[in-house]
Write a structure and sequence with these properties.
By secondary structure, the protein is of the alpha+beta class. Helix content is 20%, strand content 23%.
């Protein structure tokens, strides 16, 4: 299947994060690979394995579970504690009968109420980047009319829902417009036996521990 540019390749649709030592600000991109959704984190940390690129391939139902979790977590009250949901992305090694966790897609809300998303690789040498939902660098959200100013958490929650609404629409349109039959037998012997999204450019060997969720 030939790669071609789509609306999902627009850089302004990518979330931006922060990672000490990275050459450029890390980014999180939602795309389509082999007719399935894939979330890719570009940490831009050249010293990390695979330059810190982490891919979480999945099916469309799983992606929509992520959308649902974002909407749900916006309305959840953690009582001053962090809230975390994990979606495990598993694969089957060639020399094993058991599935292993390749990485985890994290949907969270920190103790201050800021909503974020991340993909944490099972390789402890891979960087961990938190992508907070919020207004971008060139735009601000201000509430007027006698009400208190919006907090960072309130802006984040509104931005998280807007991001979800946007991508739920765009991803399905792009998937329909770019669909091509894939001959998976043509690539037998390659990949990591994960049939959703291919999970390109990521390394993983061991299960992800709960300690990996501390940013």
């Amino acid at each position: 299947m030939a790669d071609r540019k789509t609306l999902l390749d627009l850089s302004k649709l990518q979330l931006r994060g922060y990672l000490k030592g990275s050459k450029y600000p890390p980014s999180l991109k939602v795309g389509i690979y082999q007719n399935n959704p894939q979330i890719t984190v570009y940490s831009n940390l050249e010293s990390a394995p695979h330059k810190g690129i982490i891919t979480a391939g999945m099916d469309f139902q799983t992606l929509h579970v992520i959308f649902k979790l974002i909407r749900d977590i916006v309305n959840e009250d953690g009582g001053g504690e962090q809230i975390i949901y994990e979606i495990e992305n598993k694969y089957k090694p060639r020399d094993s009968k058991e599935l292993m966790v390749k990485n985890k897609t994290i949907i969270g809300k920190d103790a201050e109420g800021v909503v974020f998303i991340s993909v944490i690789d099972s390789n402890p040498e891979m960087p961990k980047v938190k992508f907070e939902f919020g207004m971008n660098y060139y735009h601000g959200l201000v509430r007027k009319g006698g009400l208190p100013p919006l907090t960072k958490a309130e802006v984040s929650c509104r931005s998280a829902v807007a991001w979800t609404d946007l991508f739920q629409n765009v991803v399905m349109r792009v998937a329909a417009d770019t669909y091509e039959p894939v001959d998976y037998n043509a690539n037998k012997g390659g990949g990591n036996s994960n049939s959703y999204g291919g999970n390109k450019n990521s390394s993983s060997h061991n299960d992800v521990s709960d300690d990996d969720l501390v940013f």
